């Protein structure tokens, strides 16, 4: 396969994987947890627990892809997307749901950093555009998944949403295993656990000393705090102002749709004008739209704010991933992407937990204001750090 065909394969598999994942994740997951009797704090925990898997495993997965090759890790990751959705059919209590969400998180923990590193390898000169296009394709899963999942849950029940998600994941498995992905040859390491751990530690140490990777990953994590809070509590807020599950799903679809169309364009812009200004601008857009949401009950206005948040996400994501790739050494590209994913998942996991605690003790408006201020602080921190360097 040529690089362009490998890229097309990754994009196609990514579409089906993330349709499957997002059909379960939002808004179905929060509604399903509430159906099983969860309160705000427990919903926040359940929504965030799959992200905790990424916190623990994205960096090791990225480092392992540097050693064993991208194809091996991608094969494991795509299976983790396809099979777990069927297990939700047997869930009847909150503890089992929490455990399954942790297992389901293996999908993005293994697949995501490896796929990003693969794209960055395939297109070293046009990383912004290539990464923007790939992440737009995965974003199409967030575009279609929530709407399909919310609609199926509304008209046919939760089981229909879970089965459909599993079918989409199995399509991704069949596509990936039936086609050959052309990627770089893995490094040769001595057999045994000790040489492997030594090689992984070497990659960790190189990435941990890279301040550009760390500070950029931190800004991405601030954005993901707000994203996680929206994922967990926008469905519940929508229901309190009179929206139905299908309309709530449409809010997420509009957010994802705006991001989908914006990412390739903003990736090309970042190739031309630089990554750093766009990261700052994107964070400020996310903060401004996020803080306004709990003050609005009109569906059309909520759609507009969701679209604005999606655009801000696109501006940040298309630039931050490329900036991390630009700043990483070639032999630790997977580890660099894993570090970004790990810090981003820390933000994504803490968002629902933080929002759940704040909402339980104050209002939606107060909680969203505090979380929006974190994004503004991250933008200021990034600007000061890069200006000094």
Structure in words:
It is a single chain. This protein has 389 residues and is mainly α. The chain has one domain: MFS general substrate transporter like domains (Growth Hormone, Chain: A, Up-down Bundle). The chain starts with a helix and ends with a helix. Helix content is 84%, strand content 0%.
Keywords:
mainly alpha; Sugar_transporter_CS; MFS_dom; 389 residues; transmembrane helix; MFS; membrane
> What proportion of the residues form beta strands (DSSP E)?
under 5%
* N-to-C order of helices and strands: HHHHHHHHHHHHHHH
Percent in helix: over 70%
CATH fold topology: Growth Hormone, Chain: A
Q: Provide the gyration radius in Å.
A: 20 Å
The name of the CATH superfamily reads MFS general substrate transporter like domains
- Count of helices? 15
Summarize the structure.
It comes from Nitrospira lenta. The protein is mainly α and 389 residues long.
């Amino acid at each position: 396969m040529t690089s362009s065909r490998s890229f097309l394969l990754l994009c196609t598999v990514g579409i089906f994987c993330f349709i499957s994942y997002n059909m379960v994740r939002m808004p179905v997951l929060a509604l399903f947890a509430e159906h099983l009797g969860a309160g705000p704090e427990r919903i926040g925990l359940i929504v965030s627990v799959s992200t905790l898997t990424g916190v623990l495993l994205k960096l090791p997965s990225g480092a392992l892809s540097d050693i064993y090759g991208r194809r091996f890790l991608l094969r494991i990751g795509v299976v983790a997307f396809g099979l777990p959705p069927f297990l939700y059919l047997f869930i009847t209590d909150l503890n089992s749901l929490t455990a399954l969400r942790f297992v389901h998180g293996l999908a993005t923990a293994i697949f995501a950093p490896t796929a990003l590193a693969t794209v960055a390898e395939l297109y070293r000169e046009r990383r912004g555009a290539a990464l923007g296009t790939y992440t737009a394709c995965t974003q199409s899963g967030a575009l279609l998944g929530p709407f399909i999942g919310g609609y199926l849950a509304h008209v046919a029940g939760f089981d229909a949403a879970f089965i459909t998600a599993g079918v989409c994941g199995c399509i991704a498995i069949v596509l990936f295993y039936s086609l050959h992905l052309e990627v770089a040859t893995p490094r040769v390491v001595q057999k045994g656990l000790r040489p492997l751990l030594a090689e992984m530690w070497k990659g960790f140490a190189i990435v941990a000393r890279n301040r550009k990777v760390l500070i950029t990953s931190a800004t991405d994590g601030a954005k993901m705090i707000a994203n996680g809070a929206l994922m967990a509590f926008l469905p519940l807020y929508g229901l309190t102002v009179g929206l139905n599950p299908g309309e709530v799903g449409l809010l997420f679809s509009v957010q994802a749709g705006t991001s989908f169309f914006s990412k390739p364009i903003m990736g090309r812009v970042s190739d031309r004008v630089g990554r750093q200004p766009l990261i700052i601008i994107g964070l400020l857009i996310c903060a401004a739209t996020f803080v306004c949401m709990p003050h609005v009950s009109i569906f059309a206005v909520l759609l507009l704010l969701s679209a604005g948040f999606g655009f801000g996400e696109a501006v940040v994501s298309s630039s931050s991933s490329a900036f991390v790739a630009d700043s990483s050494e070639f032999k630790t590209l997977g580890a660099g992407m894993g570090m970004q994913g790990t810090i981003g998942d820390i933000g994504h996991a803490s968002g629902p937990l933080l929002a759940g605690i704040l909402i339980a003790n104050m209002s939606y408006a107060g909680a969203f204001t505090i979380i929006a201020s974190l994004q503004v602080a991250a933008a200021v921190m990034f600007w000061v750090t890069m200006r000094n360097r």
